[in-house]
Design goal:
The structure holds two protein chains of two kinds. Chain A is α+β, with helices and mostly antiparallel strands. In chain A, α5 links the parallel β6 and β7. Chain A is elongated, with a radius of gyration of 31 Å. In chain B, the strands form two sheets. Chain B has a six-stranded antiparallel β-sheet, with no helix packed on it. A four-stranded mixed β-sheet of chain B has the order 8-7-4-10, with no helix packed on it. The longest helix of chain B is centred in the first third of the chain and has 27 residues. Chain B is elongated, with a radius of gyration of 30 Å. The chains are: A alpha+beta, B alpha+beta. Chains A and B meet through α2, α3, α4, β2 and β4 of A and α3, α4, α5, β5 and β9 of B.
């Protein structure tokens, strides 16, 4: 079935080109007829080449779309890494910085921080000095959202989040240190990722307080020694 | 002219053909013309050009044109609440990987973008618009206009190029809605200044909104964008 329908199948070739060619030979009434037959066969081949090209284009389209997230040099995680060292927040300006990141909204101030929890958990903390709104988004290295929180869903409007791998989290819960007893524990399956901390500046008078909130926010590896070694 | 050119092209294969076919020179020539000696590379070139050119071009166009599937459409407004999640479709993932934007997470907010008015015509800086009605429930919202692909306006601008829910004036009635004039020239009441002469897009971002996670999105209403006039009116 498929053999008889395929473009390259012997039957197709027999129907198409061989007959045309044979007719060109058989007529032999002059160069014109044979040329005409030859050009008809050639047109068919060009059509085949175009169809092959279109099928190839569709395949290539799918391959690029599926593979682009793995090879992109412009994705958000690469840009956050390009800001500088990990484990610290970088404020974003109105103009794109050298990493290519900028504020997306005139009223929203943002800071980004890349982290790596393969060695130990990361703690994000910031005291709330009265900002009208803040929100935190945690993403893995493929820019998939892992966790997000805002000031209403946090406890007391204070940013205090610990990002840990499932293994670290189990050990952490076993003997919860006093320092993180009030923290929100977030489980991240990927070791690497980045966080975005945003705060609103609805009026210019809020700029100072928001600036202070973002500048003193920390994104540091959590110094924690588990007592029960296993 | 054409015949002689073809003959010249065929001639390098002449001895090979002569060995195989011992017919008269005329038949040999006509056979040689349809032999795929120099046409095969040409056909392969066509196929490869179409495959690579078409494949790359269509991908660039597709990633530029849309953020992905799964958009919520409310009037002329469009939002992608799942663009940042692991459940996003391959086009959305590819788009965000090449755009490199920091997308709002679900507890943060949701950005709605409008590039057409209520009648379906493109928003341009030559015309004036009215934005009336309510936003879906949210603690805070911001509104600004920017050309497609351009940076958002600065908050320190002298003109009101961006508005938010705290500085916008509400209607005097009981409904608490708003009425914003979007124009290049100054308007009384709420005025959103548009600085681009060409087409622009409106971005309305809702912060801390149940819209981002709720399933009952169909009942939500977004403000209407109506054209009030074009030119110097």
């Amino acid at each position: 079935m498929s053999r008889s329908l395929g473009f390259g199948s012997p039957r197709f070739r027999r129907l198409g080109f061989k007959r045309l060619r044979a007719r060109g030979l058989g007529l032999r009434s002059g160069d014109f007829a044979s040329q005409k037959a030859g050009s008809r066969g050639f047109a068919l081949k060009v059509l085949l080449a175009v169809v092959t090209g279109l099928v190839g284009a569709a395949l290539l389209h799918l391959i690029i779309v599926l593979a682009l997230p793995d090879f992109s040099e412009r994705d958000a995680y690469t840009r956050v890494l390009a800001e500088g060292e990990i484990y610290r927040f970088y404020r974003l300006g109105e103009k794109p910085d050298r990493a290519g990141l900028a504020k997306d909204d005139p009223f929203v101030d943002a800071a980004v921080c890349a982290f790596d929890i393969s060695e130990g958990p990361v703690r994000l903390a910031a005291a709330n000095g009265g900002v009208p709104f803040w929100s935190l988004g945690v993403y893995d290295q493929s820019s998939n959202e892992v966790f997000s929180i805002n000031d209403r869903t946090s406890s007391g409007g204070v940013l205090d989040v610990v990002i840990a791998s499932p293994m670290q989290l189990t050990a952490l819960r076993k003997a919860l240190p006093q320092a993180v007893s009030q923290s929100i524990l977030v489980e991240a399956r990927e070791a690497e990722g980045y966080v975005v901390l945003r705060s609103l500046v609805p009026q210019p008078s809020f700029a100072g307080i928001v600036s202070q909130f973002l500048n003193q926010a920390t994104c540091a590896p959590f110094e924690w020694r588990s007592r029960s070694r296993f | 002219m054409r015949y002689s050119a073809q003959r010249a092209r065929v001639s390098p294969a002449g001895p090979f053909l002569r060995n195989r076919i011992n017919a008269n020179p005329l038949a040999q020539l006509s056979e040689g013309q349809s032999k795929p000696v120099f046409r095969v590379p040409f056909l392969i070139a066509i196929a490869l050009t179409i495959a690579f050119g078409g494949g790359i071009w269509s991908t660039l166009v597709a990633l530029d044109a849309t953020i992905g599937f799964g958009a919520i459409k409310l009037g002329s407004w469009e939002a992608f609440p799942e663009a940042q999640t692991a459940q996003a479709d391959p086009y959305a993932k590819s788009h965000r990987a090449s755009a490199g934007k920091l997308i709002y997470a679900s507890a943060e907010g949701l950005a709605f973008i409008a590039s057409v008015d209520q009648a379906g015509e493109r928003l341009t800086g030559n015309c004036s618009y009215r934005l009336t009605g309510h936003t879906p429930p949210a603690r805070f919202w911001t509104l600004f206009a920017a050309a497609p692909g351009a940076a958002p306006p600065s908050a320190q601008s002298d003109l009101p190029t961006a508005l938010n829910s705290r500085i916008v004036l509400r209607n005097g009635g009981s409904d608490g809605g708003f009425d914003i004039a979007i124009s290049a020239t100054a308007k009384p009441g709420n005025w959103l200044a548009v600085s681009t002469p060409g087409v622009f897009r409106l971005t309305l971002t809702l912060f801390d909104t149940p819209t981002a996670g709720s399933s009952g999105l169909i009942d939500l209403t977004m403000p209407r964008i109506e054209k009030t006039g074009c030119g110097n009116v």
